[in-house]
Amino acid sequence: IRCWSNIPFITMPLSRAHGKSFAHRSELKHAKRIVVKLGSAVVTRGDECGLALGRLASIVEQVSMLQNQGREMMIVTSGAVAFGKQRLRHEILLSQSVRQALHSGQNQLKDMAIPVLEARACAAAGQSGLMALYEAMFTQYSICAAQILVTNLDFHDEQKRRNLNGTLHELLRMNIVPIINTNDAVVPPPEPNSDLQGVNVISVKDNDSLAARLAVEMKTDLLIVLSDVEGLFDSPPGSDDAKLIDIFYPGDQQSVTFGTKSRVGMGGMEAKVKAALWALQGGTSVVIANGTHPKISGHVITDIVEGKKVGTFFSEVKPAGPTVEQQGEMARAGGRTLAALQPEQRAEIIYRLADLLTDQREEILLANKKDLEEAENKGRLALPLLKRLSLSTSKLNSLAIGLRQIAASSQDSVGRVIRRTRIAKDLDLEQVTVPIGVLLVIFESRPDCLPQVSALAIASGNGLLLKGGKEAAHSNQILHHLTQEALSVHGVKDAVQLVNTREEVEDLCRLDKLIDLIIPRGSSQLVRNIQKAAKGIPVMGHSEGICHVYVDTDASVEKVTRIIRDSKCEYPAACNALETLLIHRDLLRTPLFDQIIDMLRVEQVKIHAGPKFASYLTFSPSEVKSLRTEYGDLECCIEVVDSVQEAVEHIHKYGSSHTDVIITENEKTAEFFLQHVDSACVFWNASTRFSDGYRFGLGAEVGISTSRIHARGPVGIEGLLTTKWLLRGDSHVVSDFSEHGSMKYLHESLPLPQRNTN
């Protein structure tokens, strides 16, 4: 029993058990019964006279889509007053005498004074039209809608409450969308917010409280409150340092400062929060989001139901650790402290991590064994991914060696002067290397990626957010723990963060205020998804690793099979493995060609024939479906070309600008290939597998970039640095360099300081 407007009543139907709201956004996709509350600012136009028809149509389309998925949708809508105001204004203008209109003139008629319209009269005039509009829109999706008008009294009287409950259940049973509104034609004037002191009292005096009451009464799974702001902020939106609150927990309202209410409507954000907390207490999950933004309003409802990070999600379950936003801020602060360390101190951290990888070998392999057993039991990983997931003593030893290389080569990476210019007398300019900021590295099935990337971030002074695949959860956890143990040597433990919350990758890619660069490590599909999802954050990576080996007429018999075998069979799941073998036409039906085919068969490589190759054969292997295929397994395509020029053209047309190789003894042909193939890595008489940061002497890599800006090929420390300009003067001003000024520009190049080569 609770008190509401000083009258005690039961807040929920007697048959309802106290429900549990969803704990995480990812669970919202399981919501069956949903209430969508449309605020006045969402439904009405900016002039507050008439409806925002385009926005309303988009909302109806989303509600219809969810209804047709088998969900039970209800709408609590505003808009009757605005629609009625538009109709009544029109009627008043028409009722003006023709004489008065003619004598007033066109301009005066446009600005003719309209009497202040009483809200209840507007509501009475607008309710039927608003409902007719909803009916017409829902009819386009073969959905029936029904109007229900309620007042305070309908919730005072137990019998009326039961009748309302029964009516709504019957409509839902018949697949009808109930459209509910307060009966503004007969409601009393609004009362002061006397019940906003706590969450134990709820009055139906605006559509926010109405939506919360109905959500609890009807045992709904989800209440979506759409307004004209992105969600709940920790201070009034638009104020300095205002931050959107991703998840709001009961008891957090003390840390929030509320601003003024929206341009129209009865309730402000404080009323929305109060109603949301009341609904949450009743077992209904709540999201407050923006329904007016033109870029997101067309999919805001469906995005919320899909669990995407939209608006503010109200949850009763606080996560054990920090939120991803807090982790991003910690990584930023930790990265700046890291960058301020001496180079020897950063190197010491990396050396310590290398030692821990070998000292704690048994614990690491035990955690990795758990991941492998779980993956095999669930059968969710293909064999190539299982190989990537697996760690071994030799892998850990190689990792440790690579980390020590990074430590040794990082002594002068941050703060290195790369250009010095004397602008004028006593005015010197320097360009120096600095960290990029905060990196987000997303990787699949590759626990060895974690210490590699961490070492590179430490060496370059960058903060780091790591998002690993759940298939490597145990391995990632212990490797991150060891990384933080190494960072603790100099008190910068927070610089590297492992994201363990249920954040979707797409949501992480929207944190443009926290993340400066995204580096995906995984399948081509993962990279493409991240490139598509990233909003305002640059992505470093390659979408595919379609690597070619071209065998020229002057190729050495001894070298060909060695290079092809290594490129394809040494590690077929790698992004730098051979996928397409180009063979000069003159080599067909020669002993060299037969040796290549025999070797591939011995290695159990499945061969796919390109169109030209298939045309030369009576009985050919299966013809390739696409020449742009990354197999990632013991499969490859063979195609025939007529010349080195045609090989180059084929690579440019079907390749991914990753790594391409020519095998030939003709130096002129080789140089033509090296100069004309426009890929990140181009080799002569060497395996594609050399395209790797460790093999290049970089110690390790964060990935192989095929983009053309900033970094290309295996990306080591240098690719994680940018620059800033330092200008040192002595009371210099630009006006001194004008035509009649006293100073002249010199622009003299100055020698660079000696680099540390130890």
Automatic annotation (TrEMBL):
Aspartate/glutamate/uridylate kinase domain mapped to chain residues: 32-290
Localization, UniProt: Mitochondrion matrix
A Pfam family per the record: Aldedh
GO molecular-function terms, A-Z: ATP binding; glutamate 5-kinase activity; glutamate-5-semialdehyde dehydrogenase activity
Catalytic function, reaction form: L-glutamate 5-semialdehyde + phosphate + NADP(+) = L-glutamyl 5-phosphate + NADPH + H(+); L-glutamate + ATP = L-glutamyl 5-phosphate + ADP
GO cellular component: mitochondrial matrix
Protein keywords: Amino-acid biosynthesis, ATP-binding, Kinase, Mitochondrion, Multifunctional enzyme, NADP, Nucleotide-binding, Oxidoreductase, Proline biosynthesis, Transferase
Sequence similarity: In the C-terminal section; belongs to the gamma-glutamyl phosphate reductase family.
The name this protein goes by in its record: Delta-1-pyrroline-5-carboxylate synthase
Species assigned in the record: Thinocorus orbignyianus
Gene it is expressed from: Aldh18a1
